[in-house]
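Let us work through a complete example step by step.
Step 1: write down the sequence.
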Amino acid sequence: MKVFAQTLNLKDDLEVIEKYKEYHRNAWPEVLDSLKKVGITDMKIFLHGRRLFMYMETTDSFVPEVDLPRYLEQDPKCQEWEDLMGEFQEPVPGAALGEKWSMMEQVFQL
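Step 2: predict the structure and record it as tokens.
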């Protein structure tokens, strides 16, 4: 098993944040199935203010640069979901140009 953490911001608008949370309470089944197909075994997203933190557990063979784009190809609903979620999201300060979710470095483990 591998683990990954990523972060991004939601737009600074309470209505946008609530709508984003509502979508995730009712995530589309095609999206969930496709995430599993590419090797994501567990995913959690946490919110603090407008900052999101995503934690993923994956298979040992999972490679983010390969498998996250592959997820989008599993079902047309996946790209539709990503485009829709992109309307709510903003990169964090320091994100690379064009980067949506920024990969976080693990600095501690108990």
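Step 3: interpret the result. The chain has one domain: 2-103.
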